[in-house]
Amino acid sequence: MMPTNLPQSANLAPDPSDPLSILILAGGASRRMGRDKAWLEMDGAPMIAQVLNRLLPIAAEFVISTNSPDVFARLAHGLPVPLITAPDRYINAGPLAGLHAGLSAIRTEWAFAVATDMPFVNPDVIRGMQALSAGHDAVIPRITSSGHTNPEPEPLHALYHTRCLPSIEARLAAGERRLVSFLPDIDVIYAEDRAMRPLDPHYLSFMNINTPDDWERALSLLANQ
Question: What is the average pLDDT across 176-194?
């Protein structure tokens, strides 16, 4: 199906009653950072722990997509909800394989997929997205962030239903690796600036930590919060 744009009159009231899996993609190479971003210390804890703590209020479970499960399994200690790891079933197939592994492992119908390097992820934004999900296969923000003039989709800050799996598998079987490759095959609703900006005026929820400069900015933001 063709993607659907968010209607102006869409109801953004959150619906926290639906169980939601949190899928954290932790398979990046961290080349620009020079070390594994997941374990960078932030306020006395690794960055991935910051992501877990921020999303715990809306999490029925955590699923970490990683090919190093033993490293991440220890994060389950002390969590009040389950945490499992999901290695890729399609080897060397990029982030699309990570999304496939995670969606295949969740025990709910919906997952919020997020990168491990987004330490300011905002549950209010996700609840607003969740309220738009009825009748669709995915909810993807399409926002105008700093340094851009055109709205950009954020497929690693998005909601996906398990109905996406056949389309993802078909793309992987065809040799696709791009995370957005299967979107033309499903029913997507895009959450535009007008929906996202009131929930997160500075778009901190979408901030990625890719470089040492990004990291210094994140630490400064955290100190000022």
Answer: 96
Query: What's the pLDDT at 216?
Result: 84
pLDDT in tens, 54-79: 999 999 999 999 998 998 988 998 89
Contact 31, 4 (CB under 8 A): no
Residue 35 pLDDT level (bands cut at 50, 70, 90): low
Predicted confidence (pLDDT) at residue 148 exceeds the cutoff of 70: no
Entry pTM: 0.88
70: Cα within 13 Å, side-chain hemisphere: 0
* Total count of domains within the chain: 1
State the CATH number of the domain containing residue 188.
3.90.550.10
- Give the three-state DSSP class for 74: helix
Q: Are 167 and 183 in contact (CB under 8 A)?
A: no
| Contact call for residues 4 and 187 (beta carbons, < 8 A) | yes
**Which CA distances in Å does 164 have to 40, 51, 173?**
32, 24, 14
199 burial via Cβ count (<10 Å: 0-12, 13-18, 19+) = buried
Query: Rounded to whole angstroms, how far apart are CA atoms 44 and 39?
Result: 11
Range of the domain at 189: 4-224
- CA-only gyration radius of the chain, Å: 17
Residues 6+ apart with CB under 8 A from 95: 25, 27, 28, 156, 177, 178, 179
Instruction: Name residue, tokens 């950072």.
Output: 33
Question: Looking at the chain, how many residues does it have?
Answer: 225
